[in-house]
Design brief:
The chain has 430 residues and is of the alpha+beta class. The chain folds into 4 domains: 2-91, Rossmann fold (3-Layer(aba) Sandwich), CATH 3.40.50.20; 125-180, Dna Ligase, domain 1 (2-Layer Sandwich); 191-318, D-amino Acid Aminotransferase, Chain A, domain 1 (2-Layer Sandwich), CATH 3.30.470; 329-421, Phosphoribosylglycinamide synthetase, C-terminal domain (Glycinamide Ribonucleotide Synthetase, Chain A, domain 4), CATH 3.90.600.10. Helices cover 31% and strands 27% of the residues. It has 14 helices and 23 strands. The protein has helices at residues 10-19, 51-60, 71-76, 78-84, 94-101, 103-112, 126-136, 159-171, 239-259, 292-296, 304-312, 352-355, 392-403, 419-424, and strands at residues 2-7, 27-32, 42-43, 65-68, 89-90, 120-123, 140-144, 153-156, 182-186, 191-200, 204-206, 211-212, 215-217, 221-224, 229-232, 265-275, 278-285, 329-336, 361-365, 368-371, 374-377, 381-388, 411-412. The strands form 6 sheets. Strands 12, 15, 18, 19, 22 and 23 form a 6-stranded antiparallel β-sheet that branches. The chain has a 5-stranded parallel β-sheet with strand order 3-2-1-4-5. α5 (94-101) packs across α6 and α7 packs antiparallel against α8 (159-171). The two termini are 32 Å apart. 47% of the residues are buried. Bound molecules: adenosine monophosphate and glycine. Adenosine monophosphate binds at residues 118, 141, 143, 153, 155, 185, 187-188, 192, 214, 271, 282-283.
């Protein structure tokens, strides 16, 4: 089988790494990929948002299966386009990618199916939105409706911050038409977790829980980032809680959409806050998480191609549960100093070769390139250093030992990935 992975980050490297283990996969292409992915896949110089260009390539190269990493091509309708040409592709249609690309769409869907989430109001007019903030007070959460490079959500502690966020999104159009509407919602308190399932439109199989670390600094301080590390499982999600999440959150959405004649196929990712009243949805995403994929997929024993194909063909009911390794997995992101603000690029990375082939240690590349035989940084989040261990403590220690072998100028990483799980559950298993 000839597979095309679309995207260029750590998640896509993890997908390629896992696909390379499948006896069914003969050739992997990745568009556009990165310096690490180039070791396992042939890179294709087409950007992820050039969906017509990707289609042309897939037809010419007789691609049998396409796996899309990020939400951007999904929101542009890559699935509809490839399906219309009879090429197997994994992910939701453009209409259902709105679960991520329109927060208003997602909130209305949650309301319709009684899915627990923060109380909210939708505004098309900025003055009305500001009046609402003035009467409601803070803390309060302001969300641009559309995709905004992960910057469209503001958790405001002060009224001025909330009013400023509304002005930026709606009056100054900082995110363009993504700010035509805003959602203003209650601020939830608790610990965040990610729950991912693979749906075939009627049935789904679930992946182990995981936890991302979104803030740049230790102890969840500083600005939000694309994610500075993750671990799986997240022991705060007990088996009973996972069942509750499936029954109250995942099943109503998947069955509800199926009954509407609009089946959801692909990864459904629920970003949850575990509040004192139970799990509530912060957001849905329509693809694997990054860096959650790096912490989840190394634990998967099942062939990824088999499950993805069963999902595309609507046959997950015959598939049974996925098989997982018991060992927890931890991924720590090494970033270029300055990220998520300004940072340097093209810094030489040393030490990754020494780690190649070490058992249960994986270095997933998020933004690297190879130039004149040297491995160079090529973005803010550079590497996702990942390890499996006998327990979370073991996986954490192994990951940081591996990191100590890698260096580039001004490398930055959080020192506390996994510490929340460690403080509560020293030897957590699935
Ligand atoms: P979202 O893209 O909707 O997940 O929001 C990004 C981040 O904002 C989440 O990961 C949370 O940290 C935070 N957030 C979103 N909604 C809320 C909420 N209602 N209460 C508290 N924090 C929130
Ligand atoms: N880890 C957050 C995301 O993938 O959206």
């Amino acid at each position: 089988m000839r597979v095309l992975v679309v995207g260029s980050g750590g998640r896509e490297h993890t997908l390629v790494w896992k696909l390379a283990k499948s006896p069914r996969v003969k050739k992997i292409y990745c568009a556009p990929g990165n310096g690490g992915i180039a070791k396992q896949a042939e890179l294709v110089d087409i950007k992820q948002d050039d969906i017509e260009g990707l289609l042309k390539f897939a037809k010419a190269e007789k691609i049998n299966l396409v796996i899309v990493g990020s939400e951007i091509p999904l929101a542009l309708g890559i699935v509809d386009l490839f399906q219309s040409e009879g090429i197997k592709i994994f992910g939701p249609t453009k209409e259902l990618a709105k679960i991520e690309s329109s927060k208003v769409f997602a909130k209305e869907l949650m309301k319709k199916y009684n899915v627990p989430t923060a109380d909210f109001k939708i505004f098309k007019d900025s003055e009305q939105a500001k009046d609402y903030v003035r009467t409601k007070g803070t803390p309060i959460v302001i969300k641009a409706d559309g995709l905004a490079f992960g910057k469209g959500v503001i958790v405001a502690k002060e009224k001025e911050e909330a009013l400023g966020a509304i002005a930026n999104i709606m009056d100054f159009k900082l995110f363009g038409s993504a700010g035509d509407m805003v959602i203003i919602e209650d601020c939830l308190q608790g610990e965040e977790v990610s729950i991912l399932v693979v749906s075939d439109g009627k049935d789904f199989v679930s992946l182990p829980s995981s936890q991302d670390h979104k803030r740049i600094f230790d102890e969840d301080r500083g600005p939000n980032t694309g994610g500075m590390g993750a671990y799986s499982p997240a022991p705060i999600v007990t088996n009973d809680m996972y069942e509750e999440i499936k029954a109250d959150i995942i099943t109503p959405i998947i069955k509800g959409l199926a009954n509407e004649g609009n089946p959801y196929k692909g990864v459904l990712y629920a970003g949850l806050m575990i509040t004192k009243d139970g799990p509530k949805v912060l957001e849905f995403n329509v693809r694997f998480g990054d860096p959650e994929a790096q912490a989840i997929l190394p634990r998967l024993n099942t062939d990824l191609v088999d499950v993805i194909e069963a999902a595309i063909d609507g046959k997950l009911n015959e598939f049974g549960e996925l098989e997982w390794r018991n060992e927890p997995c931890v991924c720590v992101i090494m970033a270029s100093g300055g990220y998520p603000g300004d940072y340097k690029k093209a810094l030489e990375i040393k030490g990754t070769e020494e780690l190649r082939g070490l058992e249960d240690i994986m270095v997933f590349h998020a933004a690297t390139k190879i130039q004149d035989g040297k491995l160079l940084t090529n973005g803010g989040r550079v590497l996702g250093v990942t390890a499996l261990g006998a327990d979370i403590e073991g996986a954490v220690n192994k990951t940081y030992r591996a990191i100590s072998k890698i260096n580039f100028e001004n490398a930055y990483y959080r020192k506390d990935i996994g510490s929340k799980a460690l403080s509560k559950f020293k030897s957590a298993k699935v």
